[in-house]
Amino acid sequence: MQKSLCSWILLLIVLCLSSVTMTFGQKKFSPSSYIDEHKDVAQQLMRETGVPASVILAVAIHESAYGNSKIAKHLNNHFGIKGKNNSSVIRSAYKGYESALSSYRDFVALLQRKKATQPLFESRSSTDYQSWIAGIARSGYSVSGDWKSRVLSMVNRYDLDQYDLKVE
Hints:
By secondary structure, this protein is mostly helical. It is built from eight helices and no strands. It has helices spanning 2-25, 31-49, 53-64, 70-75, 100-113, 118-123, 129-138, 147-157. Helix 3 packs across helix 8 (147-157). It is elongated and about 75 Å long.
């Protein structure tokens, strides 16, 4: 009986420690590490579509808490896009992606598909991040009243407009 109880206690301790290790072992992004990891993708999408890299990064930073939100970690969803997912880890109304890159591409594709944001692609420069953010905000992308100012503050706080410069 004693041996069995000790075995159960030991097993419980091991499970608790492994759970703590897995939780703390997940990569936690800082603002600079998130930007460093995703700026190249944002710039590539800017070259392909005209959406300023600063806008892509600022929206991702805002919506995913620098990639640290549950939906960013478990669903690779960096933009708060709703949809289906197959996650067995979390229950969520947010769309699941196989990678962060897929999430980034879908965000830009969403802007291209939405009737309210399509004119931005024809009338706005990839260096005019303020107009892009205002246009996305007007399109109803977010229901939050301060979304536009929060995203603009991300661009300014982290000098994200430096990534809008043409890079070949």
